Amino acid sequence: MAFRNRDRKDFDAGLMFIGIGAFFAIGAQNYPMGTAVRMGPAYFPTVLGWILVGLGLIVFIRSFFLRGEPLTKINLRPLIFVLGSVAAFALLLERTGLVVASLAVMII
Predict the structure, then answer these.
(1) Mean pLDDT of the residues in the chain
(2) CA geometry: angle at 10 spanning 75 and 26, to 5°?
(3) What average pLDDT does range 70-95 have in this prediction?
(4) 3-state secondary structure 37-79
(5) Do 92 and 104 form a contact (C-beta atoms < 8 A)?
(6) DSSP reduced 3-state for 35
(7) CA 69/CA 9 separation, integer angstroms
(8) Is the pTM of this model over 0.85?
(9) Crossing angle for the helix pair 98-107 and 76-96, to the nearest 10 degrees
(10) Is the pLDDT reported for residue 70 higher than 50?
């Protein structure tokens, strides 16, 4: 019952930001960090990952205090076309070249 008062979009977006940020920040720990002056390969993804986690926490906590609009039905057709065009580009690029792959993406 109390969940109806939350902003569900911000709640879900905050969880997504926290998950993606933590994934990259923790995954980058296998590389040398370096310093701010001489950055290693882990520096940039770690810093950006933790910034994304922080922003996700702000959005997540905010969702408990703001009343949002109810979720609407998800329209899957545009999502399928966008993902299909990216997959077609990846499959056609090496076989047919950039021009044909780009045309296929624009047509799809």
Answers:
(1) 89
(2) 105
(3) 90
(4) CCECCCHHHHHHHHHHHHHHHHHHHHCCCCCCCCCCCCCHHHH
(5) yes
(6) coil
(7) 8
(8) no
(9) 160
(10) yes
